[in-house]
């Protein structure tokens, strides 16, 4: 994911590398940044050594053979997977898609039952574990370690790993972002200590796949969604390398564990998985931390885009389209420490990201973030071990996880039609905290001849700080789950997006006429000034309305009493931070003024006539003016209040085309 606290302080071989460069595009030798602290157990990396011991050279990964100085080309990965397939009857290599540059996308199925199809796997009632590596192709040790696990389980038959196959089936994608992986350069990851040549962060259409899970613009993501929907894994890994501040930790992680995942899965994560994972990793010599950062260390940087919205069907403030978590940053900058300690913040993401998208599917996903300044060997050791311990926890009681997932699906589906319950849509880091010891490194600053100003860098001296850990979530957007949503036939493109997520829909068989439904009107719609991930975000304020809407035969009804209720709400409810309307899937509705095709010189007389003819409406209006100061000061809202109640139907401009259904009448 490469979350940027700031440009990391690097240990350079020498300033002469820079000063000797001549010309605007002069080349220098690739830098070799490194951490000022390596975990002692990482030098031995016992688990890696055990996996590699006695293995024939042709079965080793390129990382192992090169002491983690190099990483394999795509074809080498496929060749190794095919070799494993030849050596084991429990391995099947499958193709599940094609990249923009025409390369086949490969997954490796490992099953003791030879359940190499989703249908066969589901009949076994075993847990399905999905391992995904290389979604950012420069962050690449997960590719080798995933291949090592395959070899351990089914080729060299390590007893510990082989035992997993009695309880689980594995779907492993060693390399997700293939085209960018082959766009190799020693300069692609200047903030990372090896391998010597790596791929790029985005794919070849310059889309970041780990911002694409909900909108699914990239061909690679659409192929992945098909694979995921077919297999429906119970647990998922997404392997990354983060960059930023140097510290003692060798691996950090993140998961949905609050209202952002269903109640059964949430309980499993918090009561079983997280405590066990941390305990087991620390016993193996790892220093583990939640994925976050110290407040104020690196101003101007942040993580994921997120909305700061009010609950229910009300207004919403815009998310930061460029990936900066505006709500979290605002909370950090305004939060005053009450006990003199510094703040450590675990940020809140949204379903455009792997682990929050999987959480919206009620399937726990472990976001693994090893650190770019550690050696590639240390990163591989951390990545390997965190996967081993996580799989152990799953395999020790797989049915507990499967029940937790099913319970979460059922609980979400049961919320449909209940206006007294609200589903989480978005949040920010909570103000509440508890003290922890944060294992940092001391830092000093020196004046740089390049900038002429002090530049901070880290030292090898440990700096163990007691800090306020902010790892809770404050809900900023939530809403009741309707009985269903209706998508007019003309907006088939939205139904197509839902279909990519495996959402169940019905087609209406007759024209429903002009019925009255709950929907929303937008005011203050404003496009972000620069594109983000190939799209331009829209900011707006929401106003819930009840209006007549035409639903012709063939329209799409999306029942909400289904397991995918949470992901549907994330896509269709306009208060959600990653709603499709925000991503630009319905931009045409923001064109035009959006009233009745008449200016105030005609619409005000209409409202005046209505007020004279309907004293009951005037009483209602007058009461709202007196009780709602925001409404009273908004001339446009006051006029729209009358026009929306008139016989003059508003145009489609600034009107959400999708309806909430609370009572199905057809």
TrEMBL record:
Keywords: Carboxypeptidase, Hydrolase, Protease, Signal. Its cofactor is Zn(2+). Residues 81-213 form the Peptidase M14 domain. Residues 1-26 form the signal peptide. Residues 188-202 have a biased composition (Polar residues). InterPro entries: Peptidase_M14. One of its GO terms (biological process) is proteolysis. One of its GO terms (cellular component) is extracellular space. GO terms for molecular function: metallocarboxypeptidase activity; zinc ion binding. It comes from the Bacteria. Residues 183-202, 318-337 are annotated as: Disordered. Belongs to the peptidase M14 family. This is Putative carboxypeptidase.
């Amino acid at each position: 994911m490469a979350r940027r606290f700031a440009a990391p302080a690097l240990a350079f071989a020498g300033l002469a590398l820079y000063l000797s460069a001549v010309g605007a595009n002069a080349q220098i030798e690739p830098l070799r940044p490194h951490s000022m602290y390596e975990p002692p157990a990482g030098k031995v990396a016992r688990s890696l050594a055990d996996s590699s011991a006695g293995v024939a050279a042709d079965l080793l990964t390129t990382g192992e053979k090169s002491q983690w100085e190099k990483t394999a080309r795509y074809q080498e990965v496929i060749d190794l997977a095919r070799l494993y397939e030849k050596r084991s009857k429990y391995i099947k290599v499958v193709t599940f898609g094609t990249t923009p540059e025409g390369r086949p996308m490969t997954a490796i199925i490992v099953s003791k039952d030879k359940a190499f199809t989703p249908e066969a796997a589901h009949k076994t009632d075993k847990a399905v574990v999905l391992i995904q590596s290389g979604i950012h192709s420069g962050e690449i040790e997960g590719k080798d370690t995933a291949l090592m696990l395959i070899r351990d389980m089914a080729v060299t038959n390590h007893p510990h790993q082989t035992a997993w196959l009695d309880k689980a089936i594995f779907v492993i994608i060693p390399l997700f972002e293939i085209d960018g992986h082959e766009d190799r350069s020693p300069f692609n990851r200047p903030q990372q200590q090896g391998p010597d040549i790596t791929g790029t962060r985005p794919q070849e259409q310059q889309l970041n796949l780990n911002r694409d899970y909900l909108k699914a613009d990239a061909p690679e993501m659409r192929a992945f969604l098909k694979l995921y929907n077919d297999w429906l894994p119970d647990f998922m890994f997404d392997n990354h390398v983060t960059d930023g501040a140097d510290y003692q930790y060798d691996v950090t992680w993140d998961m949905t564990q609050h209202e952002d995942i269903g109640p059964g899965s949430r309980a499993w994560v918090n009561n079983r998985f997280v405590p066990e994972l941390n305990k087991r990793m620390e016993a193996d010599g790892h220093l583990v931390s939640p994925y976050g950062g110290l407040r104020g260390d690196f101003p101007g940087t942040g993580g994921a885009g997120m909305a700061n919205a009010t609950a229910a069907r009300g207004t919403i403030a815009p998310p930061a389209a460029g990936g900066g978590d505006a709500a979290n940053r605002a909370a950090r900058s305004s939060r005053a420490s009450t006990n003199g300690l510094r703040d450590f913040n675990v940020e809140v993401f949204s379903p455009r990201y792997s682990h929050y998208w999987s959480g919206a599917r009620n399937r726990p996903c472990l976001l693994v973030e090893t650190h770019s300044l550690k050696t590639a060997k240390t990163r591989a050791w951390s990545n390997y071990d965190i996967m081993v311990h996580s799989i152990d926890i799953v395999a020790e009681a797989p049915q507990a996880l499967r029940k937790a997932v099913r319970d979460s699906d059922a609980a979400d589906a049961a919320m449909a039609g209940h206006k007294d319950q609200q589903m989480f849509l978005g949040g920010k880091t909570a103000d509440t905290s508890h003290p922890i010891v944060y294992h940092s490194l001391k830092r000093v600053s020196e004046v740089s001849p390049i900038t002429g100003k002090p530049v901070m860098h880290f030292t090898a001296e440990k700096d163990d700080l007691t800090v306020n850990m902010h790892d809770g979530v404050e809900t900023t957007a939530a809403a009741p789950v309707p009985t269903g949503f209706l998508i007019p036939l003309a907006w088939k493109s939205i139904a197509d997006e839902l279909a990519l997520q495996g959402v169940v829909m019905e087609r209406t068989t007759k024209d429903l006429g002009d019925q009255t439904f709950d929907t929303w009107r937008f005011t203050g719609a404003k496009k972000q000034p620069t594109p983000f991930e190939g799209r331009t975000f829209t900011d707006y304020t929401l106003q819930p309305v009840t209006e007549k809407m035409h639903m012709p035969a063939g329209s799409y009804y999306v029942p909400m009493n289904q397991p995918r209720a949470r992901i549907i709400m994330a896509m269709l409810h306009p208060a959600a931070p990653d709603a499709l309307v925000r991503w630009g899937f319905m931009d045409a509705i923001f064109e035009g003024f959006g009233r009745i095709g008449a200016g105030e010189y005609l619409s005000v007389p209409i409202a005046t006539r209505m007020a004279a003819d309907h004293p009951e409406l005037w009483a209602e209006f007058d009461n709202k003016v007196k009780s709602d100061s925001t409404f009273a000061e908004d001339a446009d809202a006051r006029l729209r209040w009358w026009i929306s109640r008139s016989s003059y139907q508003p145009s489609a401009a600034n009107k959400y085309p999708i309806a909430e259904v609370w009572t199905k009448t057809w």
